[in-house]
Amino acid sequence: MGGEKQVLFGGVFWWIPSFVFMGTMSSLGAACSGTDEPTGSMEQHGDVKIVHLRGTAYQMGLQHGRLLHDQLVAGAAFIDDSSLWLMMDWAKDNGFVDDAIANSYPDVIDECRGMADGDEGVFTFEECMTLAYGDVIVEFMDHPSLACSQFIVMDGATKDGRLLHGRNLDYDRMPFMEENPVLFVREPKGKIPYVVVGFPGNVAPYTGMNAAGLSVASNEANAVDDIDRTGRSHVQMVREILQDARSLGDAASFIESQDHMTAEIIVVADGNAHKGAVFEMTANHVAVRHVDGHGLVYATNHFVDPQMLDKCEPVGPGDSTWNRFERLGQLLDPDGSDSLYGNLDIAAAISILRDTYDVVTQETLDPNQAIDGATLANNGCIQSVVFDPAAGILYVALGSVPAMRHEYVGYSIGQLLSDPQAMAPEPASYP
């Protein structure tokens, strides 16, 4: 990995060639700072910033605010000039900012306070909290379902039996996110280090993998009526799982123990235990779909478990989420019409994330023509990722939408955490 690193020591930024840090990143930061307080750092790799955050949630917030100050200034300006301002204004008028502060996990609150202090109030505490509570707010605003897709494949489904986890994240067109992709390498004090695919100001992650071999990502869903205003944000739960869970069992116990508010789908893959599951949730109901006997489980934006069918809006042919779920079946199921079963590897997983076949019209579209999530790859895809969690490897496509048009660049969580024994991704990227 080439380029330069921006390191925060004592509130001052220093640009140092990144080769200096190989294998000594964490210890060098502590030694040069002359203090026991952890330091953050930032590297530029192509169009992606890799931001290292370490310490307590408040300390990581300070580092986040200082290292990404310029980007947060741009983010605040973007909010003022975009539809996000309407969400912020609506949330404030309807009491959701107060709800966010009352219902959020302590680490989220602390990091938002640190970020606001670190960037000197450019990106305010209230704005940070609102975005970190966004999954709750958009559901109460009756936002249409987004076009996210995920799958876990393993055993007989893959060439070598390994477990792979693919995901496309769809979002409203947000040029700020497209222009400022970030990989956050988080080392929370006393917790599990993890990597998040995100953007400046992203405290509650949608997509990530931890050093214990878990990959986790969320998809929105729309409940019929089973939502309320007391409990926890599901996207914030993703953060809690990444920093605390060492197994699928840990993640399941945590999810079952929480007070839920809205409809959501969370997919968890456990590379070490060779397990995976889809969690379908509303305020008062949770169902789990585990990897089946064929080594498969997949999800889009509606519930599939029989217990949950009456908990979300009905879907059928032509609906975005139905189309994408059916296409995953065609590509993944052993008897699917275009089945890749038994031949799946990272390259094949990427081909699924890039698939633009419309199962209703039976046309293969250009990604920019695939509007409203009609296909797996569509014009709203903001990030596309394939995880190999047992190996600690992820391949990430980021940048201007649709993201899956871009190169999938490989990252090793071990290398990002300066483990000298960590294996590099091979190949380094997929074009």
Describe the protein.
- There is one protein chain.
- The chain has helices spanning 25-33, 57-67, 69-80, 83-93, 96-103, 106-118, 125-132, 134-140, 175-179, 234-244, 248-257, 320-332, 346-353, 413-416; strands at residues 4-9, 12-17, 41-45, 48-55, 149-153, 164-170, 182-188, 194-198, 207-210, 214-220, 264-270, 275-281, 286-290, 296-299, 357-358, 363-364, 381-388, 393-398, 408-412, 429-430.
- With 431 residues, it is α+β, with helices and mostly antiparallel strands.
- The protein has a domain at 149-430: Penicillin V Acylase, Chain A (4-Layer Sandwich), CATH 3.60.60.
- The strands form three sheets. It has an eleven-stranded mixed β-sheet, sandwiched between helices. The chain has a seven-stranded antiparallel β-sheet with strand order 14-5-6-17-18-19-20.
